[in-house]
Amino acid sequence: MALLDVRNLYIGYKTFKGVLDVVDGISFSIERGESLALVGESGSGKTSIVKAILRSLPGNAIARGRILFEGLDLLSASKEEVSKIRGARIAYIPQEPLSALNQLFTIEEHFIDRLLLAGREQTSLLRYIRERRRAPRELRELMIKALEEARIGEPERVLSSYPFQLSGGMLQRVLIAMAVATRPSLLLADEPTTALDVITQKEILGLLKDLQREMGMSILYVTHDLGVARMVADKILVLYAGQPAELGSSARVLGSPLHPYTSGLLRSIPKLSGEPMRPIEGGLPDYTNPPGGCRFHPRCPHAMDKCRALKPPGIAMDERLVHCWLYEV
Ligand SMILES: Nc1ncnc2c1ncn2[C@@H]1O[C@H](COP(=O)(O)OP(=O)(O)OP(=O)(O)O)[C@@H](O)[C@H]1O
Ligand code: SF4
Ligand SMILES: [Mg+2]
C-alpha cells in the first residue's frame, strides 16, 4: 500500500463571483521513502492540494475525492483522527517561513509549542501550562538533537534567538528541524527554497535529501521551479490550472517531456547555452469559468476540436501518465 494515495481530488472555493474550480481531478501516490514534486505555475492549485492533505483548507473550500494516508481517508476521517496524524506523522514546512514564526517568541518557545501540540487537536490550558513548565528540561535534548540533524552548528544559541536574529537559510533549517523532530513518515514542503539565494537553496535541498534518506521519510515538494524538482524529486506531477498534465519519474518527464505544457515550461527556463527563452503565451484561466475539455487548450499550439470538448484521461506511455489527446491510440 502506498504511504499517500490521492485519488481524483477536486477542490473548489465558494466566492461572491461563484465557485472557483481550482483543482480538478488530481491523482498521485507516494511510496515510503519516495519523493514527489508537484510542479505548476503560480495559482495552479499546489498549496490548495497540500492544505487538503493537512485538512486545513479554509471555510469557503469544498473538497471531494480521496486522500488515503496509510489507508485512512483524511478527507472523511474524524477531526480527532486527523489531528493525531497532523504535525506528528505528517509534518509541514510552510510556503512563507517568516510568517510561520512570531517575532516576539524565541525559537525554543516555538519549538516547545510545536512539540506539545504535535498530534493533538487541542490541549487544556492547565495541561498546556503544566507541560510547558516542565518541558524545557525534558524536551531540550530532543530539540538540540533535531537542530543538529538539520546541520545547525550552534543549537543552544539558535534556541535562544528570536526569528529576526536569524538568516533566511537558518530559519528554514529551524523549520525543517521542527518538522522532522517527531519523525514523520511524510513531509510536505511547500516551496521550501523560493525565498533563498541559489547557494543556500542548494544547501537546503541537499539537507532535505539527506534527511529523507537517513530517516526513510517520504517528501512531497511543491515548486514552480523545474530545476528544483529535477534536483530532489524521484517523481514529478506537472499541473496545469488544477488539472494533471504529466506524471512520471523526474528523469523521464523532464528528460523527454510528452505533454505540450511540460515542453513549454522547459522552453521557458533560461539555458546555460544562451538559447533564447520562449515563455508560453497567455496566462491561467478564470477559475469561475475555466475552459472546457483540456484546460490548456487556449494556450496549446496543438489544440484540436476534441481538446475543447473532452477532458483527456491519463494515457500510459513511455513509463508515465500523460493527459493529452495527442497520445490517444
Ligand atoms: N480561500 C480562497 N478563496 C478563494 N480562492 C482561493 C482561496 N485560496 C486560494 N484561492 C485561489 O485558488 C487558486 C490556487 O491557489 P493556490 O494557492 O493553491 O496556488 P499555488 O499553485 O500554490 O500558487 P503559488 O505558486 O502562487 O503559491 C488561486 O487562483 C487562488 O487565488
Ligand atoms: S489535450 Fe489538446 S489542448 Fe490539451 S495539451 Fe493535448 S493537444 Fe494541447
Ligand atoms: Mg502556493
List of distinct ligands in this structure: adenosine-5'-triphosphate, iron/sulfur cluster, magnesium ion
User: What count of domains describes the coordinates?
Assistant: 1
Oligomer: single chain
- CATH level 1 class label: Alpha Beta
Shape: globular
Q: Could you tell me the number of beta strands?
A: 12
Sheet of most strands:
8 strands, mixed
The assigned structural class equals: alpha/beta
Corresponding CATH superfamily: P-loop containing nucleotide triphosphate hydrolases
CATH topology: Rossmann fold
Give the overall pLDDT as a whole number.
90
* Number of helical elements: 11
Radius of gyration: 21 Å
Helical residues, percent: 25-40%
- Spatial sequence of strands, sheet with the most strands: 6-7-8-3-9-10-12-11
Short description:
With 329 residues, the chain is of the alpha/beta class. The chain contains eleven helices and twelve strands.
